[in-house]
Amino acid sequence: MESSRHTSPAILAFAIVAGCAFLLQQTGFFNGIFSTDILASVKAEDILSASDIAAMERPVVQPMTAASIDPAETASVR
Is residue 62 a contact partner of residue 68, using CB atoms and an 8 Å limit? Predict the structure, then answer.
């Protein structure tokens, strides 16, 4: 009688794990995990510097001109 050939349990376990991982990848379970696409892009006008941020925080001051003075205010001063 011939004896059967012995197969290592580690090889069987590896084959089962590899097969399961392949099937999970095919069904979409790992969809996007193994891709290396860069999905973001940066444009030059999207970049803010420290001076841009400071300019946005500073309130806009309108210069005083003769046209901006209310005549009613000057009449009450006289």
Answer: yes
> How far is residue 78's CA from residue 70's CA, in Å, rounded to a whole number?
14
3-state secondary structure the chain: CCCCCCCCHHHHHHHHHHHHHHHHHHHCCCCCCCCCCCCCCCCHHHCCCHHHHHHHHCCCCCCCCHHHCCHHHHHHHC
pTM exceeds 0.85 for this model = no
Q: Which single residue is written with the structure tokens 């970049």? A: 47
Average pLDDT of the residues in 5-20: 90
